[in-house]
Design brief:
The structure is a homodimer of 199-residue chains. Chain A has helices spanning 8-29, 36-43, 50-53, 57-82, 85-103, 105-113, 124-144, 152-171, 181-189, 194-197. Chain A has 199 residues and is mainly α. Mean pLDDT of chain A is 85; it is low at 1-8 and 189-199. Chain A binds a DNA duplex (30 and 30 nucleotides) through loops.
Chain lengths: 199, 199
Amino acid sequence: MPRQALTHEDIETFRQRAVETATRLYAEEGYEAVTMRSLAHALGCSPMKTYRYFENRDELFALVRIDAFRRFADEQEAAFHRGKGPRDTLLKLKEAYIAFATREPHAYAIMFQLTPVPQDYPGLNEESFRGFSFLLRAARAAVKEGLFEGDPLTIAHLLWSNTHGLVSLHLSGRLIVGRNLETLASIVLDAPTLKETQS
Amino acid sequence: MPRQALTHEDIETFRQRAVETATRLYAEEGYEAVTMRSLAHALGCSPMKTYRYFENRDELFALVRIDAFRRFADEQEAAFHRGKGPRDTLLKLKEAYIAFATREPHAYAIMFQLTPVPQDYPGLNEESFRGFSFLLRAARAAVKEGLFEGDPLTIAHLLWSNTHGLVSLHLSGRLIVGRNLETLASIVLDAPTLKETQS
DNA sequence: CCATAACGTTTACACTGTAAAATATACGAC
DNA sequence: GTCGTATATTTTACAGTGTAAACGTTATGG
C-alpha cells in the first residue's frame, strides 16, 4: 500500500486528529501527562512528525485550548437561548458554566486556571471572548431591566469571577475543610442564587 | 578553611536557608523556573546536596508552601484583630487577602492556584487552615450579629471563593477584555463591598 | 528515468528530577 | 600522629522532557 502525498485536506486531517487525540489525552490524564512522545504514540507516528504539522507543543496546545473554548462557548450560547428573561438567563449561564467545568475539569483547568496564561494564538481570544460574551449580553439585559446598576462589563466580570472562584476551589479540592463532603459539593451545585450573590 | 561536620542545628540552618532561597527564586521567577540545579547554584552547592537535607523536590516545595501559608495566616490574623465589628473585620480580611495576593502573586499561585493540588505534608493543612480560620471566625460573628444567615462555614467558603475568583482571574490577566485597564484593576482594588457582594 | 522536493524517522542536544557511585572530609581509637 | 570508619558532598549516570538537525524514504514533475 503505497503512501499518498499529503494534500491540503490531509494536513488538516492530521492536525484535527492530533488535536482531538491530545484533547482526549488531556481529559484523561491532565496537562503535564501529555507529552509529544505519548501523543505520537497514541497517533501511531514518530514524535517528530507532529512538528511538521505544528510549530511546536505550544501551538498544538493552543489549538486544544481553542477547541475547549469553542465547546464552552457553544454551551453558553445554548444556555443563553434557553433563558427566560435576564435573571433566568444569568442562572442558566451559571449552571452551564458549572456543568462544563464539572464534566471537563482538565479542559477547564487549561482554559482558566493555568498560570501563567499560555501564549496567545490566532482565534484564541475570539473564541475565548465568545464564551464570555453571552454573560456580558445577559448582564446588559439585566442592567436594562434594573436588576443591577453599574457598568455591565464590570458586572459580568464580577459574576464570572464569582462562579470561577467556587468552581476553581471546588475542582482543585480546596473547599474541603471538614468532612461534610455533600454540603461542600452542594455549595457548587446548589450554588448561591444571584439574589444572594449580588443584591 | 576546613569544613565542619554538620550538627543538628546546621541541618536546620541549611534547610531554612534553602527554603528561603527557594522562596525568593519562586517570587522572582515563578514555579517552574526553580529547578534543583538553579536552586543549588543560588545556594552555592551541588544539586545533590539538597537531597541529603530534603526527601526530594516535593518536600522542599511543600515547605515553601507552608512558609507562604504562614505569612498569609499572620497577615490575616493581624487584619482580624484590626477589624471593628464583624462587617469591618470581613472587609479587613478581604483587603489583607488581596494585598497578599498582589504583593506575592507567585506565592499565591502555589498556595491556591496550582492544579492538581501538590502532595500533602505535615503542618501544611494546619497552616493552611489557620489562614482560613480568621475568615471563619468573622463569618461566625457576622451570623451571630444577623449580618448573614446560614452555616458560617459555608458562608466563609462563599466569601473566600468570591475573593479568590477576582484575585485569581486578575492576577492571571484574564480579566482584561477591553482596553480599560484602570477600571479592571479597580475591580479588585475597589472590590465590591460585602453589601454588594452578599445581601 | 531521474532530479527534486516533500515527508517521516532517527539521532542528538540541552534541559529536568534523582539514583548510584565516587570522592572528600571529619571523627574516634590506638 | 595514623588508620578505619562514618559522614558529607560531588560527580556521574539514567530516564524523562521539548525539539533542532541529519538522515532516509517516498512521491512527483520534467
